[in-house]
Write a structure and sequence with these properties.
Shape: globular
Strand content: 15-25%
Distance between the termini: 24 Å
Radius of gyration: 19 Å
Number of strands: 12
Mean pLDDT: 87
Oligomer: single chain
Low-confidence stretches: none
Largest sheet: 12 strands, mixed
Order of helices and strands: EHEHEHEHHEHEHHEEEEEEHH
Strand order of the largest sheet: 7-8-9-6-5-4-3-2-1-10-11-12
Length: 322
């Protein structure tokens, strides 16, 4: 089992397969993607070596992220490879959802268990203003397709200062009959968007208090769960989660590591610049990668240092999928 010097064990790998994305979200890529080309990202064989190494060290959950992971032409191959790696028990992905209506059932057949979709507003005009794409209706049809395909569906929504009570009420009304988990995520500072962060960051604590006063009850997390505090209400088909990276002891229960599309190990989404593994992966020597990972975990810090304004290599969230 991968374990760091603070006794935290790591069951969960967030694997970015591309940095590219065709949305222009205000808090991520407001000017569009202008990064490395697809030939600079890890190949299928390199991903295979990586997955075998992590699985042999106790990793049981893998999330495929981007950018937008479905932009890779070999995405289905990556999905099948991940699902068929011995030791990997749960496969998730994060997507903007624009292709989900067409492919949800195919992803399920390839081995996908869970899908996280970014929806920052249920108002079509506001959705288009935030994402740069007028595709809310298409994304919502994709959610229905994912539910029909019996995928575990989670919806991510970033808290911004213009997040109004009416926006919350619209989401709550939607959750009455929609069997998904809606996760509100605090905006995190990145290197390219520090001014946007200063203007738009909103703490999730007041929202947590509001939900508790409305009768929402906490859910005990799975061992491979992410950082969300999740809640249920007997009157709602859906659940709510809160991800608050600026809250006290947020890093205490960290159970996940990240690998970028270019083959760098990131012990944290923030606070460091990544450790290059590309040469090791090219050799296809799983045991050598295992040795590297064990050594690297000894250097993981206790916290992300976001409170000090340190963002490490993370210029924008598309680099590592959040």
């Amino acid at each position: 089992m991968l374990e760091d010097s603070f006794g935290r064990q790591f069951h969960y790998l967030r694997l970015s397969v591309t940095e590219a994305c065709n949305f222009r979200c205000q808090y991520c890529l407001p000017d569009g993607y202008d990064g490395p080309s697809s030939d600079q990202f890890m190949s299928l064989s390199e991903i295979d070596t990586l997955l075998q190494a992590f699985a042999s060290l106790g990793t049981s959950k893998v999330r495929l992220t981007g950018g937008e992971p479905t932009l890779r032409r070999d995405f289905i191959d990556i999905l099948e490879l991940t699902a068929n790696t011995p030791g990997i028990e749960r496969v998730a992905m994060t997507t903007h959802g624009a292709r989900m209506e067409k492919y949800a059932s195919q992803w399920k057949q390839a081995g996908l268990d869970q899908v996280n979709v970014s929806i920052d507003s249920l108002d079509p005009r506001q959705f288009a203003a935030i994402t740069g794409q007028d595709k809310l209706k298409s994304v919502l049809r994709g959610l229905d397709a994912a539910v029909d395909a019996e995928l575990d569906v989670k919806v991510n929504s970033v808290l911004l200062n213009d997040f109004s009570d009416s926006r919350l009420q619209r989401f709550l009304s939607w959750l009455k009959n929609m069997p998904v988990t809606l996760r509100f995520i605090e905006l995190m500072e990145t290197g390219d968007l520090s001014q946007f962060f200063s203007k738009q960051h909103q703490s999730g604590s007041p929202l947590k208090t509001t939900l508790e006063n409305m009768g929402w009850q906490p859910i005990v997390p799975r061992k491979d769960a992410g950082p969300a505090q999740e809640f249920y209400h007997p009157d709602y088909a859906g659940k709510i989660g809160l991800i608050m990276p600026y809250s006290k002891d947020f890093c205490k229960t960290c159970n996940r590591l990240r690998v970028s599309a270019s083959g760098k190990l990131h012990l944290c989404l923030f606070s460091e610049n990544g450790i290059d593994m590309r040469d090791l992966l090219a050799k296809r020597d799983v045991q050598e990668v295992v040795t590297f990972l064990k050594h690297a975990l000894g250097t993981k810090h206790a916290t992300h240092y976001l409170h000090e304004g340190k963002t490490g290599a993370t210029k924008h969230l598309a680099m590592l999928g959040g």
